[in-house]
Amino acid sequence: MTKFEQLVFSNHKLDVFVEKMPATGYQKLFFKLSNNDGSANSNTTISLKAIMDMGNMQHSSPAVQPAWNADMKMYEGAVVFTMPSGDYHWYLNITIGNETKQVLVNVASTPTKLTGSFKATNGDAYVISLVPGKAFTPGINDFTILVNRKKSMMEFPAADGLTIQFNPEMPSMSHGSPNNTDPVNIGNGYYRGKVNFTMSGDWRLHFKVSLHDELLLDDASLDITF
Amino acid sequence: MGLFLTCLVCAITAHPQTDSFEKAPVQLKEIFIQSTASVPDFKQIRQSGNIQKGTDNILESVNGIQMIRRGNYAWEATMRGFKDGQINQTIDGMSIFGACTDKMDPISSYIEPANLKSIDIHFGGGNISGNSIGGNIDYKIRQPQFGMSKRISGLAGAGYQSNGNGRQILSAINYSGEKFALNINGIYKKSDNYRASAGKEITYSQYEKWNAGISAKYAFNPHQSVIVNYIHDDANHVGYPALLMDVAFARADIFSIALQQHFSAGKISNVETKFYFNTIHHAMDDTHRPESEVPVHMDMPGRSITKGFYSQQKLQFGNHHLSTKISGYQNQLHADMTMYSKEGTPMYMLTIPDAQRYYLEFQTADRIEFGDKLEFNSSVNFAYVRSSLYSEAGKKMADGVLKAPQVTAGPLGSVYLNPVYRFDSSLTAFMQVAFSMRSPTLQEMYGIYLFNRADGFDYIGNPYSKNEQSLNFSAGARFKNKRFTASTKGYYYSIFNYIMGVYNKDLSVMTVGAKGVKQYQNSYAQIMGGELEGSVRIGKNFLFKTQSAFNYGIDADHDALPLMAPFKNISFLSFDSRKYGCEVAGIFSAAQAHTNFDKYGETSSSGYWLLNISAHQVLLFNKTTMRLNLAIENVFDKEYYDHLDVSKILRMGRNINVQCTFFF
Hints:
heterodimer, A: Immunoglobulin-like, Immunoglobulin-like, five-stranded antiparallel sheet, B: five-stranded mixed sheet, 6 helices, disordered N terminus
């Protein structure tokens, strides 16, 4: 856990922590909020929004609002950096009460595609991101994805109620694997499933997404390597 | 488990002993390896194994054994169509298991005649085969002897084969004292690629190996001695032309310590207790194959570690000759694969996910003599087998592909009945009825995407596989007088839960280019056949001998079982005198058309016949002997392959083999 930034609000001090340096994909963010007298604060609402400034226009991306994590004694939230900073700038807008502070984040690119934006058959766009968890090892692994719908350039609400069929593939060998479990909705846009990695290496996770009977995404895929 | 212990029957049956030629059990074949200067009776010299002949060549000459060849090294023995986990191969009674997922290292490849006293072969389950279906091959290690007339003796030899430029040198030294005896032996062999008929070079068929053994025996007193054995076998850069990969190295370390006790009085005549440990390290190698044939370079190492013990007692009660044995082992197998494709990260997986087996067996055998004519052999075996995965990574890997249970454990049992009737001093008849079982091998239970070149499929294990169970009947007779011998045997096996790969259309292949995935399932099969042998002495020095074996196998649908050898006959005409001998041998194999292509991908094979000529000379000096051998194999340089040869790789064309062994 690395301290990434410290922000001073009029009534609070906020330390922002990351488990890994910001890169494209689902980025967990941890917050230690303390009152001005130094005491820890666990009952204040912190709001999070990521904004990418591309000069002539701006857009946001999916975010998971911070919630108190009693085990870690910190607030835990997340944003999805849908692309690396590249030539532009990502900012994290953090709001407590009616104060908003902005943090510049340098988002590195990743060798594999851990998040993607996909155009659905009905014209909507969806963002699917792999939630970082326990390191993958050969055999059956749990995995979780976050699915958000792009309502507008600035709004990416969590998408619940979708039916997702899943199968993994090793692109270099063109084979899949047996005994996978399709991800099921566990709320807040999260879907949890099981993937059977028969070996380490490069894998492509294929998702077929439907809403009720309507097929939205025929083949949305993410790439991982371990 | 406790139930089996309380059920252990007291009546222990005798381990059939070769007391005299007439009473030799008809089911056991022993091939003795000559290693001393004392020349056996010239009539028997032909029966003893030439110490310079390879283990594989010795096995191939046994009627009823057929070898599956994948090249010029490490042929796989099958007994009457039974192979792999259906037969048991032990070294001096010790259990040992190959480490290669592609069957490139049968146990016979880790042992050399230079290490051995004899090779004991028993067909059929039960009796000394224990819990096996097809039979047992035990490679008995040479024991140092006390009090020999020569304190120091030994041998040194060299051999050369024109085909493949094969060369070998070997040596052994014995020290024989009153209380301490030692044997040290070693062999080095190397061959380049061999050539089939018309000089056609078979690429990737080279091999190189060395093997060394040491045996030390110490007598505490005339009745008790301890014997320590160690063998190291080391093969490097071995080619397998029938397969898509070669072997970088195959190394075995075989160690045992045993206490032997003889009793001159009392019911128990001897007891042997042995503790042993062996390890095999094996690695496949595709770096010598052309890039075009290797879409993905793979590292595929494997290892097999076995620790075990046995304690065997021989007793006599009235007319019962009994033996009891308790034995057990733990075997651990690990095999993995790392694949390097042109782009991307290396891919690593376990192909045998750290599988382990515990095995405990109680065995009793009895030989009862009823007068001079009737002998009744019987045997009962009980075993308890526990199979599991011993690492978290292994359990996780297996759970993903196989949904393997944590532990599989259960009993095995065999019963064997063998009456032998001696009509008179020349005619003996026998019958044998046995019920035997065997567990699936660890590969058959837990193997993950093991590519089988013979049918082009990936195989995965079945942790729920049931034990194979076989009911077998055989009968035969042997006639022997001063001039003629004739023996005939017929057998029939009905195998329940026969383990074989069955195509599973829901699984996608892992090996690039494989036709599909098969999973081991239990089915049913029947195997039947017979063996005929005969010989006639012509005059004082000539001997004509012939042996034939035929074999027929069908699956549950009465379709042809794969890898069944066709009818084969080997006939020899030999001349032997005290110091020299020569022999002409003809080998005939019928065509094999009883195959099923749709189910097993097996195609038929043509028949063939060959002629071999050999001659030997024994030169006797003061206290030393020299044995010279010259052989011309496949005199007519015929192009041929055997039905069991994988990928129908052609066998050797003409080969001139010269050997010289000096015994001192």
